[in-house]
Design a protein that fits this description.
The chain is α/β, with parallel strands linked by helices. The chain is about 35% helix and about 20% strand. It is globular and about 55 Å long. The protein starts with 5 loop residues before the first helix and ends with a helix. About 30% of the residues are buried.
């Protein structure tokens, strides 16, 4: 059996096994047990009582975190020439059309989000094999296919908008901020995320909808959140 490192020994006794903490306690604990030298992400794992194999129990959505993600988002806006100036002013990192489509066909994917217009989706459809596996394919449901590309860049992406989707095991994983955030911002983002999931409860889901919630940082152990936090977030 491997020995615990110095940092592991320091945090081992801080999280009580099996105990469920309030959101505030969980956020503070994650701060305490994170020992990385870099600014670690604040991660949330929500286990749902749904069967994702059934179309009427799929949980998927978008949420704008009130305090942002703390990450620098690289945005590519594929738009018509008349929209380029507005997209650049809104903060898009890359703006254009055919030249970027050719770059993507060549394997370039050094971006986090692609925003485009409905009229251009015909050209982008051919990029599905490259963009699909990387989660970069624009989608009207996520707000990345829109006539108002400037608004999508400025208000929806740069402000902390994230997509989430339940996996095959009925679990949703997401990064909802940074450990360097103050506790109130961490709580605010967590509540907004949980609330968004609660609003998407499928009518076909039976029994307990949210079975468990854990908070952690990039390399820390998970901290269980008290179910009461779910009720508070849903209010």
């Amino acid at each position: 059996m491997s020995k615990l490192t110095k940092n592991q020994k320091l945090v081992a006794g801080k999280v009580e096994a099996g105990k469920a903490y309030s959101l505030a306690e969980a956020c503070n604990l994650v701060k305490e047990i994170t020992t990385t030298k870099f600014d670690a992400s604040l991660d949330i794992v929500v286990r749902l009582g749904v069967d994702p194999r059934k179309a009427n129990q799929m949980v998927r959505g978008v949420v704008a975190l009130p305090h942002g993600t703390g990450k620098s988002v690289r945005v590519l806006c594929l738009c018509t020439p008349d929209q380029e100036a507005a997209a650049k002013e809104a903060g898009a990192d890359y703006v254009g059309l055919d030249e970027y489509i050719d770059k993507i066909k060549g394997g370039w994917t050094d971006i986090d989000v692609i925003i485009t217009m409905p009229a251009i989706m015909g050209k982008i459809g051919a990029l599905g094999r490259v963009l699909g596996p990387r989660g970069l394919m624009p989608n009207p449901k996520s707000g990345t296919v829109t006539m108002d590309v400037a608004k999508a860049v400025r208000r929806e992406v740069k402000s902390g908008k994230i997509d989430f989707k339940v996996d095959k095991a009925g679990i949703i994983h997401a990064s909802i901020g940074k450990v360097s955030f103050d506790t109130e911002k961490m709580i605010g983002n967590a509540k907004e995320f949980i609330s968004a999931i609660m609003k998407l409860k499928p009518a076909a889901a039976k029994g307990t909808y949210v079975k468990s919630i854990y908070l952690s940082s990039t390399m820390s152990k998970g901290v269980k959140v008290d179910p009461k936090a779910i009720e508070e977030a849903a209010k």
